[in-house]
Amino acid sequence: MLRFARNLVERYRRPATALLVAAAVCSLSAGAPAGAAGSPATKPAMAPLPVQIPRAVVGPTPKEFKDPNSPSFLGRHWPSDTPTISFKVSSAPSSLVTPYFDPRVRIPLYRCAMGDEVIVSHHCSFDSFKLGDVAVERELMELLYMVPPMYHLNRETWPKRKQAIARHFAFWSPLHRRLAEAPLTRFEILSTDRLVQRTTFRLPEGEATITVNFSNSSSLGFPPKSATVAGAIAVAQTVLQLGEN
Question: What is the maximum span of the chain, computed from C-alpha positions, in angstroms?
Answer without folding.
Answer: 55
